[in-house]
Amino acid sequence: MESLNVLGEPLHVCGCEPMTGWYRDGHCRTDGADLGRHTVCCVVDERFLSYTRAQGNDLSTPAPQYGFPGLKPGDHWCVCAGRWLEAYEDGMAPPVRLEACDQSALAVIPLEVLQAHASPAA
Questions:
Q1: Lower CB count within 10 Å: N or C terminus of the chain?
Q2: In this predicted model, what pLDDT tens digit does every residue of 68-96 receive, in sequence order?
Q3: Cβ(11)–Cβ(5) under 8 Å?
Q4: Inter-residue contact 58 to 92 (CB < 8 Å)
């Protein structure tokens, strides 16, 4: 079954350099084992990277043992819906790519909030 995005259309790829997604296939798809719901495709910026580091999730530092190169501003990355919402509530949410956000993110984040943070077409 084809995954849909928050707009009700086929889910687009979020990013492949570095490879993102719960399945590490570039898509922000999820399943029942993904407790964090990695469904929001973000264009990470320095503010968000600093914010998430302060929350205990350092996305900037490479972790070669896990094949993770570390993120830099401008990278596209699937983040947990709850973490994105938390960043939004704290005024630190990065832009999102609506066409690459899995529809299930709407169970956590209202569409209007995501639309207000939509990134210009990449």
A1: N
A2: 899 999 999 999 999 999 999 999 999 99
A3: yes
A4: no
Encoded tokens for 118: 């939509």
Q: Which two tokens stand for residue 27?
A: 């898509």
Q: Is the peptide bond before 18 cis (omega within 30 degrees of 0)?
A: yes
Q: Which amino acid is at 104?
A: S
Alpha-carbon gap, residue 20 to 41, rounded angstroms: 9
Please report which helix (H) or strand (E) contains residue 38, including its range.
strand 38-43
Q: Rounded to an integer, what is the distance from CA 51 to the centroid of its chain?
A: 14
CA distance 95 to 61: 21
CA-derived radius of gyration, the chain: 13
| Model pTM score | 0.93
The encoded tokens of residue 85 equal 């919402």
Report the chain's terminal Cα–Cα distance, integer Å. 26
